[in-house]
Amino acid sequence: HQRPLGYLFTRNPGFKHGEEISALSVGAVLKSSANYRQVSSGAAFPAFYDNTEESHAANFKIAADKARAAKKGVWAHDMTTLGFVPTPDALSGAGALIYPKFYRRVAKWKTAKPDAQAFVKWLKAQADGKKLVIGAARDPMPLWQLFEVRSKTKVAVPYDVTKLWFSE
Hints:
This protein is of the alpha+beta class. Helix content is about 30%, strand content about 10%. Helix 2 packs parallel to helix 3. The chain starts with about 25 loop residues before the first helix and ends with a strand.
């Protein structure tokens, strides 16, 4: 949605607003952000865009990998890679808690009866379903191609979501 991404610091991060910091200090500064604390505690998934600084993404990926290995927070319930029924029930607290980049797409898809193939077909027809994703395969692919039909009602995104980069 062309929104700027930023970091929130709730404590003194060791620099002043607008001040440049060295590349060697980036990791420590990011770790002092609320963003990093959310990802490392499992309270949020990381999302990377084509304008994300690679060193920043690497720091957040490490934090997410550790949270996932410990099954912290969202990682304890996320069914994105295993399979979920793309309905509003999957989006509730008791649901699949799917990765946020896909959450919005499921929320926009309105259907009375779950149908995995119909969902993928619908997503393919959407403008944002054609946005490119890097990191799932060797070459960039449209977002809709990330979804794999697992059953009549379930789809999955069988990729490590911490390696996906989205174009906006």
